[in-house]
Design a protein that fits this description.
- The protein is built from 14 helices and 12 strands.
- The protein is an alpha/beta fold and about 400 residues long.
- It folds into 2 domains: about 240 residues, Aspartate Aminotransferase, domain 2 (3-Layer(aba) Sandwich); about 140 residues, Alpha-Beta Complex (Aspartate Aminotransferase, domain 1), CATH 3.90.1150.
- The chain binds pyridoxal-5'-phosphate.
Amino acid sequence: MSTRKPATIAVRTGIESDTQHNAVVPPIYLSTNYGFSAFGDVPKYDYTRSGNPNRGLLEKTLYQLESGQGAVITNCGTSALNLLATSLLGPNDLIIAPHDCYGGSYRLFNTRAQKGDFKVLFVDQSDPQALSHALAQKPKLVLVETPSNPLVRVVDIEQICQQAHAVDALVAVDNTFLTPVYQKPLELGADIVIHSTTKFINGHSDVIGGVVITKTHELAEELAWWGNCIGATGTPFDSYMTLRGLRTLSARMRVHEESATHILEFLKKHALVGNIYHPSLPTHPGHQIALKQQSGFGSMLSFEFAGSFEQLKTFVSGLQLFSLAESLGGVESLICHPASMTHRAMGEAALAEAGVSQQLLRLSVGLEDADDLIADLEQAFALALEQN
Ligand SMILES: *Cc1c(COP(=O)(O)O)cnc(C)c1O
């Protein structure tokens, strides 16, 4: 079983497991509660906040794909991060987070730290000196996000795990951008993997969800206890939908990446494109690490628009196949201006610190035909040039 490839695991999970009607696809159980067959005989599932067959199947599939031993499905990626931080850390414990992490993660850790729930340090984890300095303060948890959002910076998971474990810190990796199809953090030494399943894992922009996956059974049990205690767990319907999306993950990731490669070729040659950020580019500072620790480069990319801000706005509103919207990893292509959208909660100083400029645009390359996507970019750039 364990030697099966991810595509096979995801497609076959739960198939033909229905014992009542031999349904090929596992049925959805919306019931909030389950009967006790006898007095005092606690069933496997009793109340849906603590457990549900659809959520259980999604958990098992995701931890198998990530080579973990347990998982907790949460109602969003943010609550997965919140579950992790609030259950594992107390007021005197320190978490080290990337200085360029997802905007919502930054807001969560920052405001909770201000309230005194735990301490946080935002660190450039690609700077060995900054990282060593932070680790000397004996954190309890190190959060890694690679590739990062929105600049797709890459850090060395294996190396950070070695350094963090040397000071007895746990390492959690937010693997939302690559998914287990292209990166397996637990195999690189991490203790925990986090996903916003809202993104590639569900992949259809119609479910908000998250997961915490652990290397050990014990840590999963502890987090499941907390998930039930604070009410962070996901709903049966969301779990059903997410598993439906997950079945095609490998196939989708391949096409996402192939189209991103074509788009990069086009962008490289365009006069209105400045720096491009994608780990596949040999000029990308994390290119060598990406080659070592990833089995694909992924499809998230960003670039600096090399015209005026007015031209940038014309370009963005001229696009017809890239919707101006937050989120990523769905079948539909998206464009995002991080400074005014996903990352606006960071504030100007933190944005500058993280290198997120007003000229930066992020693309989530969807599954439309790549030729059509390139034609769309081309006509929108032309509109921007006309404006000059
Ligand atoms: C979207 C996202 C999150 C937050 O997940 P939600 O499902 O929106 O709560 C966390 N990390 C990364 C990298 C994300 O892209």
